[in-house]
Structure prediction request, 124 residues.
Amino acid sequence: MPELLCKEEVYKIVGPAMEVHKVLGAGFLEAVYQEALAIEFRLRGIPFTEQPPLQLEFKGQLLKCKYVPDYLCYEQIIVEIKALKKCGPIEEAQIINALKAAKKRVGVLINFGEPSLYWKRYVN
Prediction:
């Protein structure tokens, strides 16, 4: 079986998300979780950039618009967070398209809105 891309890094990203969910629970707006997760990333020494504008291109031409994920961790993993009752196909399509557009290989979708933390790893 092939080795998972960025296995250890994804594990290190999900741990802080679990801690944030354990402390705050479900029910807050996404902005609250985003701020709390940034604090937890810093406490654990996880390298990240919050809402970095990533360059997009279309047919070899750079677009004026940028894609802005919630986080870029380890300079290679896109992290999108949600605070929804349940993630569905729209949220999954968002992160899959983001990976393609930003030319990144690994993404993590995290939803703080469910009773138990939901997360899923995506590979492009």
In short: The mean pLDDT is 94. The beta strands are 48-50, 54-58, 61-67, 71-73, 77-82, 106-111, 118-123. The longest helix spans residues 7-24. The domain at 7-123 is CATH 3.40.1350 (Trna Endonuclease; Chain: A, domain 1).
